[in-house]
Structures are given as structure tokens and as C-alpha cells.
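Feature request, filed as a ticket because there's no other form

It would be nice if the structure record came with a short human-readable summary line next to the C-alpha cells. Right now we just get the raw output. Example of a typical job, pasted below so the devs can see what we mean:
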Amino acid sequence: MQMRHMNKRGVCLNYKQLIYQLLFNYNYFNLDTPPNTNHLPNPIYINLKLQKKGTFIEIVYPTKSSDEETIVKKRIVNNFNVNPTFWIASEQVVPPTLDFESLFKSPFPEQAVRHNETFEKLEVVTNTNQKILIDVPSRPAAYTLEKLNLKGKPTLEQLFQSIPNCMDYKERDKHFKQGGYKLNYQSGYAPVEIQNRHKDPEDYTKKQHFIRQKQSQANLNLKRTCGVSYVKKSESEQKDVSHIFKKLPPLVYQCSSGCQPIAGYDEAFDNLFQNLLNGKNLIVFTLFNSSDESALREYLLFPHLRNKISRERVMMARKFLNLWMLFQDALCLVIHYNYDENQLLRPIQLNEQEDIKQQLVDFICESEISICLLFKKSVSGRKAFLKSVGLWNEGNDNSSVCTETQREDIQTKFVISVPKVPINSNSTPQSLFQEFTNIIQQQENYVLEARSQTQGPQTEQQNSNNEKQTKKKKRAKILSSTDVRKDGGASDQLINYLIKEDGNHNINTCSIRMEMYVAEEKWKSANDHNKDLLNAFIKRVEHHVTSSYLIKMMNKRFKANEKGQDYIIRRSNKIYEIPTDNVQIKQNKKSINWTSKFTPENFTNLQTYKLSKKYQPISLDILKMKELSFLKQPLYCITTRDSFAFDLITKVTKVKLGDRLVDRLDFFFEPNNCPCNFKSFLPMFPEYQVGAHAYVGYFTNEELLQMEKDIYEMELKGFDGHYLPMTAQISHAQSNHHSSVRRTKFFFGYRYMWTKCQLAEPHSMVAAGVRRDVSAPPLWMRNLITKLENDNVVPKKFINSIACNVYHDGKEGLAQHFDDAVRFKQPIYTIRVFSDCRLSFGSQFYGFCNGAFAVPLPRGCILCMEEGSYAANAIKHCVRPCDMTGKSAALILRQMHDQVTQEAVKYDEQVDLPCHMSTLSVEDNAVPFGEQKRLEAELLS
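Raw output as currently delivered:
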């Protein structure tokens, strides 16, 4: 077989002599047989990347001296102009008899062929956060089952038969069985036990990779609902790069998470609700566009900007019920109050003899308490929606009962015990799985045979029953008239809209996020009694709104949608709009300490205010009068919150690292407001330490700029195929004309499997999913580690794996996850570069909501997640896109356990490398080794 190489000048060379000289002349191994590493004096590693127009090669012999390695590398590249994607690496020094110049510089003339290398456009982000297009070598299209003329879900044998250069997977399994690999690495390290204790018990029953169980592990159970929150100013300064990056947005903390339920105030709060929101006093509010919470946070954080953000108009209404026409997507409605020493909340008391505009603006700017409603289009489950507004007919949920009864009958008649599979020294995960499957199949056949014998004479009746059961199951997915309560107050138009015989589980809604907001300094200075009262009152407001007001509002909205614009115009006169342009904004505001003591009697004789003058009705330009379809969106109060529950206490101390004086930031929970699962950590962290600390100011700006330059060069090399294939794992976004890179995960030293597809590989349990098939760390990374070791930032000889997560445009973050203790020895270090960021803990759902707490990561900081700590072992962390304002990157410095890395090296030498060698080919229809593994994993997953 003739192997050819295309260099950057378009010259293809014969590699047959090169390969044989390197492998045979130095007595390593024969190409036709897998290596026996027991007889190898120095193992050699070959990785060959095949492309349609050539085979690219680079040869590097890592030595003990990084300078020697660099010299060798430069010599190869300069003399041969190679595109470095083929590696031959050995731990021995460069063989002195190998003449690089004569071997590489002069191609054999009779074998030289011209080719034109093809490129494609890729959008990347520079270090100044600018998007540019660069040329990168064209990537071959991903191989798919359809491309291999395989449809449906073929077997593994069919897959490999369709691949012309298929891996010798039988030899792979043979070598794997002979290796004696461990399959359980989860004992002997304390953080592993800590993480297991905080795992959702249901995860133990799932048949999946234990790393997937870790990734799906239950977070701290922070059930959110309506509460009291405050907006905290952003800590971000973007030091030295503020001309490039915007500051991070402010954060919201639902500070009422630690409040206690308060009894005996329900009737009192009902009186207060009637007084404030049901006609006895004016409701003063503002309305402005807010597709997310950014405008709302700015509005609440800077009172002097409120009139500007609300477009210089204030609105008034008598009843909350009259606001139904204002509930629409991307709007924010803020109702304002002040703290009152006698009745907790005080509405506005206008003096109509004085300037009304000035009074309204002053009241808005001085308001310290507000009820905010944020509206957004969303999708909700029909049943969940009906339950939320009290329209679900609980007594008619027969379908699920029928299904459960049927399931119980089957289990009663045929009880199947869990099979016991014999295990011996030759057992593998595949053999055990196959044995287990065979036993299950035998028992299933037995059950089917028994059922056919007992029900044989009733075949027609059985078929009829099956059809009925199928219809019932289908019927269970569709709402009917019997599922909706007729006595729930819903109009016929609303009921007809909710009942759809289309089998759709979901319903489009206008979701309402209702929350009470207060000033941060006022909340922190208030006594616990006032905090509990405010929290209890807003929950009572939510109860009234969801139990009765939403139904009435939806009835009005559906009727208005049917009647048209005239109906809306006639009813808009119950909302008044007062322009507040050219009004002086006062900076000084009154301040009252929130320390009063209240009893239920405080809420009996409440003040009322009657409006005597008539004001201009609301202008309808804020309504989408041309499209009234928004009125048909049912209203749904959601429980998710884009906020955190615990505002950490930060302690700053000066420490000396090497010859540098830096700030050390330690983070603590408040003792009376900490997570419910923190108690077990108190013996090791008695001061309620989170278990993460950061060093700020260790790097100079010049050092950071050089590090960022090195990372950018590393990115370009990754796009150009410089590293081993699994080193750079790139996430793309495709547009019409080009693709743009969103996130790249670089692995050096060792990598770990983390995607669902990777973890589905046949031997993914080996070495806990750790592999060594990645490039060695670049010289600048090794120099960085040496510097950190010399300054006692990290322990000496501790780091053996470096990952670099580059968030190119800041639009794609990192999902919730653990740094699994089975793989990684703690502590774990992170260096943040390019721009400020945050690390969020305990976030839930795809939208990163309902977080527990966040740790700031300013540019250049070094974060350490401590061994055995709460932050590292009891709660997942993530990087949210909203916590980046542009390009950002993290260098993650970790140690992988010795037992894991030793297994990874052995697997790489004895199993992966021979299997890789068996796929080498220069045929146009050849499938690279990595693609073959991916296709196999997709079938197995």
C-alpha cells in the first residue's frame, strides 16, 4: 500500500520507507501484528489523520528537556513544512542516526504529485473580542449511518461490515480481556464517598455510566416560589479590559429563602390585600419593555433612572383586576409602595392641590418596596396549568389509575426476580451485559408463553381489550371536557380553548414571574419579624392572584379577543396614564428603619384614599392592537427564578505568594441562612466556609496579555489540526455562509470522556473514562505550572492534567456538573482569563434558574475548590452565558488519580493503539478511527 503526504506546498511523499524505517529498523513492532508492550524498550505512539487529499504527518520525540523537544519540533516543521496532524512520539531521545534533513527535505521526484489544499471560512473571536473570518483546512463531513448506506438501527456487525477499513474490534476485545482492567474506582478516597452521599438515590437504579449518573445528580433541592428579593450591584470591574468588555450584570438574591412561616396573619394579610390591590387605594405602577430581567434590575438598582426607563409615564388603577389587558410578552409591570411603621406597606396618598406629576415621580423614586410582574411567552403542560389555576378535575383522572392497575396486575401474575450473572476473571462489561440480556430474554419468553397458554382461547377478546387500553392511554394524553372543572369560574371561551382533541400535552401561555423586591440595605437592616411578614404577605398575594384573579382576567381577555378593539377601548378608561416628562428628579429620599413590631390588629383599620379628579385613560400604543392573539394566551404564574438563594459573605485577607502580595477571598454562608445539606460539613468547616477561595492580583496585566496571546495561538492551532484529534473538542454554530466557533475544550496530558456519546463507548468504564490520546501540554503551560509551584500556589508535582475551556463569544456556557472525585484528586484550580466571569452553584434546568450561590471570577483570579468541601462535592457548578459579556476562558489545573492514569496508559498502549493501526488507509472512502468509535458509540447509546 502506498502512503502519501501532502505538505503545505502541495507535494505528496511516499511514506512507506519512512514508516518501515521508524518501526522495523528500530525494532519496535511489525505493522501486521499488534505490539506486545512487554517487549518494547520504549513504547512508540502513532496517530494518523487521513483526509481525502492526503495524509498529514508530524514526528515529535518528547525528551526530558523541553528545549530539546522544541528544537526537534522546529527542525521538522521548518525543513519539511508539515501540517502537523500525524504524530510519532517516544519517550527516548531523538535517535542520533536519524537524519531529518536528508529524510524530509528532498522528496523522491518520481513520487511527487501536486495537489490544491482546500479551505473553509470559520468565524473566530480575537483577544479584543472582535469577530473575524479565518481560513482553516476543510473538515471532512461527519460520517453518518445514512452516509454508509445504513438505515434504521443496524447491528454493530452491519456497521463494521459497511466500513472498508473497519477496526479490528474482535482483536480489541481480545486485548481488553487480557488486560485485567479494573471496573470500580469508587473507593478509598473520601470526596468520592461525600459525592455519593449527596447523590439522588434514584440514580443508583439507572443503567448508565456512573459519570452520567454524576452529571444527572440531584442538586440542592431549592423549591422556588414567590418571595422577597433584592438586586445586588455588580462586583465586576473588568480591570485593564473595561474598554473591551462590558461589566457583568447585577445579580438578584431571593433573600427570603431563610424566612420562617408565620401563623395567625392570614386574615390580616387578606385585609391588607383588599386595601392595597382591590379598590380601596390607588395602585401606582410603571410599565416598560424587558425581554429579560436586565432592564428591571437596572430600574430597581438605580431609583433616579426609573422615570427614564419607564418612558416618563406613570400609571394608576383602582383594582389589580383591571390590569388584565397589560399582561403581554416582554413587558414588566412594577407596583410601588413604601414601608409603613403602622401597616407594613403604604400606598401613595396624593394631594390633588399640588403638582401630581412631581408627587408621582417622588413616590416612584423613593419607593423601597415593589411588586414586580415580568411577562414572557412560554410553554406549559396542560395538566400543570389547570392545576395551578384550580381548573383540574381531580376526580376524573381515571386514565392514570387504569394504567397503574393494569401494571399492578401484570406484576402480580408474573414476578420476575433479578437474575444473578456469574462473574469470573475473564468477565467484561460487554460479556456481563450479554449474559444479563440472555437471561432476561429467557424469562420474558417464559412470561409470554405462560400468558399465551392461559389466555389462548380469548385471543379476540384480548385484542379488543388491547385496542381499548391503547385508546385509553391515548385518551389520557388529551384533555377533554371532563378534565376541566366547570365550576371553576372559567368562561365558555376559555374552556373551549383549553379542550383540544389534538393530543398535545403542552399549551402556550403567558407566564408571570411575580416577586417582591426591596432595597438590599433595608432588608439587611430589618429585623426577622419584618422579613417574615413581607415574605408571608407576597405569598398571600400570589395565592389570591392564582386562585381567583387569573381566572377572571383570562375570561376578560378571551372575551376581548372575541369582541375586538372597541371592547378594549371602552374598558381602558379604568387605567390612568400621567406623563411625567420635565419633572425634577430628587436624589434625597426619606429613610425609615424596618424595625417595627406588628400584630394582626395593625391590619384591621387601614387607611383608604379616594381619587376625586378624572385623569387621561391609558394610551393604547402600549398594546399590540393589530394583533390581539396575545389575549388568548392563558396566564400562568411560574415558580422558576433567575436568582440565587444565598448571598455569600466575602472575607478579604492579604497573603504573600512568592514575592507577590495578593488578595485572598474566602466565601462563607450566613449561619442562619445556609443550605439544608450543609450540616454534615460543619465539623471540617465550622465557620460555614463554602470551601472555595480565590487569589486576586497574582498576575500582572502583561502576564495576562501574554497568556491570552498563547491561548489564541493555541486556538488557531486547534482549528488547523495541529494537535492530536481528541485534544481540541470544538462546538460550532452554522450560518448560511460560514460556521462560527462557540466553545472549545482543550485537553492536555489526559482527557476525560464527558459527552453521552463518548461515555457509550464499549470500554468507557476503563480508567473511569480517562484517556491519554491527547497532546502534551505546550511549553508555556508547563512554565506556568512551574511558576505556580515555586510560589506555593499549587502543590509541587500535583498537576498532571490541564484543560482549557474557551468561550469564544460568551454565548455558550457550561452546563451543571461535578468534577468527579473518582477521576480527580482535589483541590481543583481554575485560572480565569480574557474577561470577568462567575461560577454559579446549584442552578437548575436548561435556563440556569433557581441558583444557590455564585462566586466571582475576575480576570486573572485563581480559584481553588478545596478538598472535601461543600462546593466541590455537594452541589453542581456551571458557567452561565449571562455571566459573560464576551470572550472568556478558564485554565483548569487538576490531578487525575494515579490508579486512573496508569489504567489509561495501559489501555492506550495495549488496546487503543493496535486498534487504531488496524484502520490506517489512504482510500477515499476510508473512515477515520475516531469516526468509527463515534459511530459505534452512537449505536450503543
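Something like this underneath would help us a lot:
The domain at 119-201+208-217+703-941 is CATH 2.60.120.590 (Jelly Rolls).
DSSP finds 25 helices and 33 strands in the chain.
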